[in-house]
Design goal:
By secondary structure, this protein is an alpha+beta fold. It is built from four helices and ten strands. The two termini are 32 Å apart.
């Protein structure tokens, strides 16, 4: 999965489709992210494949080349014995960095959270080497920067803990309740994320 220059995306998708026959299951589709000026200059390509055994290194290197995951701005982890391989291309933007492309082979359970970093263009500097770690749960919460709306699990984050107070009477689901912006949430909603 990677952001590619718009002029290269169609050709790369065609080359990836030629590789689909080497896997029992494969799909290659475009994807989109946050709308903006950058969308006209780039296109997202998502290639998924599955096999009965680990893909050979030569094939994974070919995929990395096509998805432009070969530069000095690329983080790598490979464990041939366990059949694990992770490659993540990042772009520095000011003091932060953004994920621009990734290849996960073997344990792909990290796709959900790392894909969100790539597709939503969320800051990734705090993750460091953890970008290469496996696992379905993100090592730290994925939260948009303060310049964007601060959202955690779909609820608006209160500005500080000073808005918290214990619930009067028997607490609902045994938790504390926030008087902040999420206090307007329905009573069946989960506890405030802060």
């Amino acid at each position: 999965m990677a952001w590619l220059p718009a002029q290269d995306a169609l050709q790369v998708r065609e080359q990836l489709r030629q590789l689909m026959g080497r896997f029992p299951f494969a799909s290659c589709v475009p994807f989109a992210g946050n709308a903006g000026i950058a969308e006209a200059q780039r296109s997202g390509v998502l290639f998924r494949a599955a096999g009965y055994e680990a893909a050979p290194d030569e094939l994974l290197q070919q995929l990395e080349q096509l998805l432009q995951l070969t530069g000095a701005d690329t983080l790598r982890y490979a464990d041939r014995k366990r059949g694990q391989r992770r490659t993540v291309r990042v772009r520095r933007e000011g003091a932060d960095m953004l994920v621009q492309g990734l290849l996960l082979a073997g344990d792909t359970s990290a796709e959900g959270w790392i894909k969100a970093l790539l597709q939503q263009e969320l800051p990734a500097r705090a993750y460091g080497r953890q970008l290469l770690a496996g696992g379905a749960k993100a090592p730290v919460a994925i939260v948009r920067q303060a310049s964007r709306s601060a959202v955690v699990s779909g609820w608006q984050r209160p500005p500080s803990r000073r808005n918290w107070r214990p619930v009067r009477g028997p607490p609902k689901n045994g938790s504390r309740r926030c008087r902040g912006p999420c206090a307007a949430a329905p009573t069946a909603a989960p506890a405030c994320p802060n």
